Give the backbone structure.
Amino acid sequence: MSGRNYSTPSTSKDGRFIVMIYIPSSCFPYTKKMFCLIHPLALSLFAISWLFLFNSTLLFAKEPYLQEAEKILSKGTSLEIPWDGPVTGPLAQTAKKIVFVAMELRNGGILGAAQGAKEASRVIGWQMQIFDAKGDEADLQKIWKQIEELRPHGVILGGMDSKKHGKALNRLAELGIKLVGWHVGPDPGPIPATSVAMNVTSDVREVSNITAMAAIVDSNGKAGVVIFTDQRFGIARTKARLMEEAIRRCKGCKILEVRNVSLSNVSKEMPDITRNLLSKYGSQWTHALGINDLYFDYAAPILASEGLPLSGRLHLLSAGDGSSSAYQRIMGGVYQIGTVPEPLNLQGWQLVDELNRLFAGQSVSGYVSPVHWVMMDNVMGHGGAEYRFDPENNYRKHYKSIWLGQ
């Protein structure tokens, strides 16, 4: 049939839409039949409306990476956390003396792990002594010498780079001292080329990824990010790198800066650094990601003093470790919107269990606890009322059953 094109939307090679309008030739010249006057116009309006709705769907469709981020965040915020750790192992090895060496007990993660190990030591019937290097490498060297003199059966390392202290740790191992650690390397499990039989930590990839995903979701894929890290530690370097990589994969997001700030100096440095970053980036800075909550203990008061609203302008997110102050900020809606809390008390129990396995001549369990993201909607679950993450999955009961045969 001859005539003019009508209502045939199609797609060109470059993805643009073309709408052709066909008007039957029988309607020309003008006819008395109303159908020929209405029919082309109705079809044309239909085609235009269809095209508008289709393009609107495309316009408001979410970027696939944003959809992926939402799925990861949804899984990580679930309050269903069943026990998936060990249920068998050796009975308690008796009359053991152990030492917990903390790089910096002001770090809430190290403190929480130490407290959990202390609690578990009492249950299993061991004596445990705690040493705090207070972030000072010189003090740590003195502690190694003290431990050589004490000759404990086992040592738990808290929050230090085990490879950096490889020589000192090898000396302890040569004395027959068993070594395990909390956050003493980037990955869970035995640390290659060291005497550390087990590093207890969450999967750093999952921790870093969910923190970055939370920033992407919160900003609807438009985050302007500054990352805070401590280059002294391998796990901190890895967290920062992985968070940066995840943010860079978000097309609408931007990494403004990765700032190296020693955790030992945050109280002195973070106030001025926070002011400088606010001045430098202004409204471009929408999200701060830290490898640890400690940075925000000293950043949040500056944000308040500078007159920033408690929410909506600049949000703080931490890839560890769920400190009590972080919980309080999240509960109160004070700048921080989320953290990845380590189950610190549980991990303290695990550290004791790993030593018990080594004392019994067995292999470590190698258990890795699942990652959990705490935000306003779920902050009260699993110990949140006490400003900590303590999974309600009967982990104490399971470890007691292993050690005491109950």
